[in-house]
Design goal:
The chain is mostly helical. The protein is built from 11 helices and no strands. Helix 5 runs antiparallel to helix 9, helix 5 runs antiparallel to helix 11 and helix 7 packs across helix 10.
């Protein structure tokens, strides 16, 4: 590998091989963040689990909950890492020319349009789904772009913590181990929310499992664009696309998965997971090709 220029801590190392152990202060920060975030989330969910509070209220407060990771991470930063810049650690500030951020944003846009298109085509091909166009699909499509922009205001609250600050802290572990840890924690954090809907009878158990797997797999693609761009903003965009483009596609062009029998439901999800696997291969391949470029290592 050619010699590289050291820049700042927000530029995380690209090689897949771990560069070393995490510093003790980083481990402590990750531990405090995980414990505090899960504890606060559980406390918020307790009235829904045991107090008879309707999940209608949960729908209302969910946008605010998306900012909880940022607030918890900021608290941990102030308590444990006051000598560093929160904005730099979170990769919120530009660390290199805007070009890589723009190109990576374009990449995640293409990938997260391709994922539902290929999944729908594959599910229809294997007989798990039936292609159908819902009433109002055309007019709803006109709202996707503004909805993505609004949704980014919410997803930045999550991504600053997950693909921002945590990715910087865990960078010495290398791409796979760091991304896997973030994916696992991100999926785990969503479980109290999906479990609440399960207990309320709003969704079946199979939906909790499928959602957890989908979150875990998609997290690797979001981590890849963080590595490729050196910025958290493409991950913010990608997360917003997950919550809008994928929801739109699956709601308007196939039979709702809730209406599928067990065999068709799991076959559809198997197709989806294969497609996510292919997306991960493409994204990680691009990360591998980027290894060794100047200015890509952390201090």
């Amino acid at each position: 590998m050619a010699s590289v220029r050291r820049t700042n801590m927000a530029e995380i190392p690209l090689p897949f091989r771990p560069d070393g152990r995490l510093p003790r202060e980083s481990m402590r920060a990750v531990g405090w963040f995980t414990a505090a975030l899960l504890a606060v989330t559980a406390v918020i969910m307790i009235p829904f689990w045991f107090g008879g509070t309707s999940t209608d209220l949960l729908v209302t407060i969910t946008p605010a909950l998306q900012w909880l990771p940022l607030l918890v991470m900021l608290g941990v930063h102030l308590a444990t890492r006051r000598g560093t810049s929160f904005l730099r650690q979170s990769a919120l500030t530009p660390v290199r020319p805007f070009g890589p951020i723009a190109r990576t944003s374009g990449l995640i846009l293409v990938m997260l349009v391709a994922v539902p298109v290929v999944t729908i085509a594959g599910s229809v091909l294997v007989g798990a789904e039936e292609f159908t166009i819902a009433d109002g699909a055309g007019s709803a499509a006109l709202m996707i772009a503004p909805l993505v922009a609004v949704t980014m205001i919410l997803t930045v609250g999550e991504e600053v913590a997950w693909r921002g600050y945590l990715a910087t802290l865990l960078a010495p572990w290398g791409f796979w181990r760091a991304s896997g840890a973030i994916a696992a924690l991100w999926s785990l954090w969503h479980l109290p929310l999906t479990a609440t809907y399960l207990l309320d009878g709003a969704i079946p158990g199979r939906e909790v499992l499928a959602t957890t797997v989908n979150l875990f797999l998609s997290a690797f693609v979001l981590s890849a664009v963080r590595y490729l761009s050196g910025s958290v903003w493409p991950a913010v965009l990608g997360h917003a696309l997950l919550n809008t483009v994928l929801v739109y596609a699956y709601a308007n062009f196939i039979i709702p998965t809730a209406d599928l029998g067990a065999g068709a439901y799991w076959l559809h999800n198997a197709v989806s997971w294969v497609v996510w696997g292919a997306a991960i291969v493409v994204a990680v391949g691009l990360v591998a090709r980027s290894s060794g470029r100047p200015g890509l290592r952390a201090e």
